[in-house]
Amino acid sequence: MSKSTIWFEVEEHESISECLERMKAEGYAAVGRKEEPLFQEIGGQPVPIRQIVKFKGVKLKE
To answer: Is the whole model's pTM more than 0.70, yes or no?
Structure first.
């Protein structure tokens, strides 16, 4: 049995639209989105290096 809700993360070399297409191909629809910064410590200071984007997917009924 598959999950009815799952989080999909936009991969580092993937566009948002590619992630949404991947979700659709797996039978999920986006119903939520969240973003969080990814930091790396450089010279003793946290520096943001990229934004992590995740979509909440709900299984489409067949």
So the answer is: yes
pLDDT of residue 4: 87
Separation CA 59–CA 21 (nearest Å) = 14
Strands 45-59 and 28-42, by their bridges, are: antiparallel
**What's the total number of domains in the chain?**
1
Place of tokens 């709900």: 58
Residue identified by tokens 């639209």 is 17
Q: Which domain holds residue 37?
A: 5-59
Sort 9 into a burial class: Cβ within 10 Å, 0-12 / 13-18 / 19+. exposed
